[in-house]
Amino acid sequence: MIENSSLASIIIFYLLAITVIASAIGVVTSKNVMLACLSLLAVLLGIAGLFIFLAAEFMALVQILIYGGTVVTVIVFAIILTNLKDFSNLKSTKQAPFAILACIAALTCLIIGIVSSPALPAKLELNYISLTFLGRYLFTDWAIPFELASLVLLIALIGAVLMVKTSREGEND
Amino acid sequence: MIDPIHYQILSAILFCIGLYGALSRKSAILILLSIEIMLNAVNLHLISLAAFSQFSQTQVALGQSLVVFVITIAAAELALGVAIILRIYKNKSSIDTDNFNLLKW
Question: CB-CB: which of A62, A78, A153 is closest to B85?
Answer without folding.
Answer: A78
